[in-house]
Design a protein that fits this description.
Number of domains: 3
Distance between the termini: 39 Å
CATH class of the largest domain: Alpha Beta
Strand content: 15-25%
Oligomer: single chain
Radius of gyration: 27 Å
CATH architecture of the largest domain: Alpha-Beta Barrel
CATH topology of the largest domain: TIM Barrel
């Protein structure tokens, strides 16, 4: 029996506007704009999400002032932007969607090099995000900024948006005034909480006056800054109540600051981990409250609403992964959803390196107006060799276009190296990628053969019209002296065999895989989360004792690399977590190691002029990867249409492999 998601699809009113369901697409930076104006890509992106049935789209952020964000942000700070904004709003409405504009100012979170002058904030407190100190705004300038917010709100209304959201969370300008860590003022805008709220409340009142009583206004706040000495859920609730009393129609509750050391959006975060923040604020206000962060599972989202913990479900990256998520849920097609695996490779890592957003599991992001899956002009028999991400994506798209697709995978199951990733700490969500792709292969009639090798003889027997080689990559041969010893194993073989971790462990190789294996080794034997939760709930140990248990690895783990730093190939938004976890579990990290060799005593190496030896019971080698092109080389001269994609073309990330799979699927 198909579950009915009654709470998710119950209408709700935000002020004067009734939304058709409880799904909200939260604002996310895309990098698709052109000189601050919505581009064709921008409009196509939002239009596709409106087609997918979401109750409300919050677009933006739109900077309310010229130095409020870098050059890759959309603008709303003067009237020249109204025409483009109107085109965006109209496109969403044509698809039956509702759209709000998010008003944005980064304050001290914007780099001076991007705006050509010093950033501004409540006080001249240095930002850990940019490494720069801002200039404190004068009272006169603060009053001018309040006007800028109200004028931006008026432009949004004139452009045809259905409402606005004011961003007052995650360490941006308004939250910089709210926090005692960044607000050291001694005037009417600084001091106790009431005074620190003054700036945000003035903006709320000015915006309300500007747009009138019948135009919906949301504030997005952090339910907890997760900054020591900052705003907790208790203070956030006070601010939310004051906002409601000032005339705000709803509160959107986010978590953390960008500088905080608590992960909020990565694999390590459990689904629904921060719903309690919205619940804490909902207890203090009567207006609708939205919660967010890893709530893409509709069963979990429905449960949150049924239990009265929040009134709306905010998603961002889940709408990158699948723009039609709400419609699929409503139609009972939950298994058809392409789920976000929270890798950050295509979204946040792109944002923080000033590149346009894409998505690992959905390479069509940003290409909604360019790529279209249409029936092929001529039906072909297509052979795809390799059931990793690249091969599965190519097979899926080719089959959707009407081709007769056969996929051969030498291993006993689909997934390739993604299956090994699921063994690593906090990577279990990568298994959803394999499950989802497998479902869509079956749904589109791909003929699957696992445990079968596509030899040249088998290819001759099949006589395909086109061949796609996605045979992946294998670890390079490593020439470390002594690596033939019995206590030495490669990282890939360790994960394939799930060999037990023994005694003192040394990992040679400081790339992403080496770091992940180091954490895998250090965590083996550490008290797990379920036991910790039980001990805490039963008050069996003090929180301090439980914290010590969580940090106590039963073995010595050392990570050695020739490079200056470890994990340089890990995305910017997750690398800091790896480093934090390595330090928490007391993994010893040695960089700039030369002349590494394995002896009876352990691992010998040199750093500078010093010779060192680390004793080891188990040594794990994490070499680089090299492409497997054997079949391609055997077929390329005698096959008229042949493609080489994914790691078999060049070892990279799954993000690249899946994009190439889609490109070939569309080309066939």
């Amino acid at each position: 029996m198909t579950q009915r998601f009654t709470s998710l699809f119950e209408p709700i009113k935000i002020g004067s506007l009734e939304l058709k369901n409880r799904y909200v697409m939260n604002a996310m930076h895309l990098g698709f704009e052109e000189d601050g104006y919505p581009s064709r890509r921008t409009i196509g992106f939002y239009q596709e999400r409106a087609k997918g049935g979401v109750g409300l789209i919050v677009a933006g952020g739109f900077k309310v002032e010229k130095i409020g964000g870098g050059p890759t942000f959309l603008g709303i700070h003067d009237d020249s932007y109204v025409q483009g904004l109107s085109e965006l709003a109209s496109a969403v409405k044509r698809e039956g969607g509702s759209i709000f504009a998010q008003l944005y100012h980064a304050g001290r979170y914007v780099h001076s090099a991007e705006i050509g002058e010093q950033a501004v904030s409540a006080s001249a407190e240095k930002s850990r995000l940019t490494g720069e100190a801002p200039r404190a705004l004068s009272v006169k300038e603060i009053k001018e900024f309040v006007v800028k917010y109200s004028e931006a709100a008026s432009r949004a209304k004139r452009a045809g948006f259905d409402g606005i959201e004011v961003l007052a969370s995650t360490g941006y300008l308004i939250s910089q005034f709210l926090s005692p860590l960044t607000n050291k003022r001694e005037d009417e805008y600084g001091g106790d909480l009431n005074k620190r709220m003054h700036f945000g409340l003035e903006i709320a009142e000015a915006v309300r006056t500007s747009v009138g009583d019948d135009f919906p206004v949301i504030f997005r706040i952090s339910g907890n800054d997760f900054m020591k000495g900052g705003i907790t859920n208790k203070e956030a609730a006070v601010f939310a109540k004051a906002l409601e009393e000032s005339g705000i129609d709803a509160i959107n509750v986010q978590s953390g600051w960008h500088e905080a050391r608590v992960p909020t959006v990565q694999n390590i975060v459990p689904p629904g981990a921060f719903v309690y923040l919205a619940s804490g604020i909902k207890e203090k206000v009567s207006c609708p409250v939205m919660t967010c962060n890893k709530l893409g599972n509709p069963f979990l989202a429905e449960e949150v609403l049924e239990n009265g913990l929040a009134d709306m479900i905010g998603l961002a990256r889940s709408f990158l992964a699948d723009p039609h998520l709400p419609r699929k849920v409503q139609e009972g097609r939950v298994d058809d959803i392409v789920r976000c695996i929270h890798c950050n490779q295509g979204c946040l890592d792109m944002v923080f390196t000033r590149r346009p957003v894409t998505c690992m599991v959905n390479p069509f992001v940003g290409k909604e107006t360019e790529w279209e899956i249409i029936p092929a002009a001529k039906k072909k028999k297509v052979l795809v060799v390799g059931g990793g991400p690249a091969g599965m994506q190519a097979a899926k798209i080719a089959a959707m276009r009407g081709h007769d697709v056969h996929l051969y995978e030498k291993a006993g199951r689909l997934g390739g190296q993604v299956n090994l990733a699921t063994v690593l700490p906090d990577k279990d969500e990568f298994g959803m990628l394999v499950d989802d792709m497998g479902h869509h292969l079956n749904a589109n009639g791909v003929a699957l053969k696992t445990g079968a090798e596509a030899t040249p003889k088998e290819v001759d027997r099949l006589r395909p019209d086109a061949v796609v080689i996605a045979s992946g990559a294998e670890p390079r041969d490593y020439s470390i002296p002594g690596s033939e010893r019995k206590n030495v194993i490669s990282a890939m073989e360790l994960l394939r065999s799930k060999a037990p971790i023994a005694g003192k462990v040394v990992i040679v190789g400081g790339g992403s895989l080496g770091c992940e294996v180091a954490l895998y080794a250090a965590r083996s034997g550490v008290v797990n989360d379920r036991i910790l939760a039980f001990l805490l709930r039963m008050r069996a140990e003090t929180p301090e004792a439980l914290s010590a248990l969580a940090d106590r690895s039963p073995r010595e783990v050392t990570l050695i690399t020739r490079r200056d730093k470890v994990g340089l190939d890990i995305g910017q938004t997750t690398r800091w977590i790896f480093l934090q976890e390595l330090a928490r579990l007391n993994v010893r990290v040695i960089t700039r190691a030369e002349n590494i060799q394995i002896t009876d005593d352990g691992v010998d190496f040199e750093t500078g002029d010093e010779h060192k030896v680390i004793s080891a019971d188990m040594i794990i080698i994490s070499p680089g990867m090299e492409s497997n092109r054997m079949l391609y080389e055997a077929l390329k001269e005698k096959t008229e249409e042949i493609y080489l994609i994914g790691d078999s073309r060049d070892p990279r990330k799954a993000l690249d492999a899946i994009r190439e799979g889609a490109e070939v699927g569309l080309k066939l």
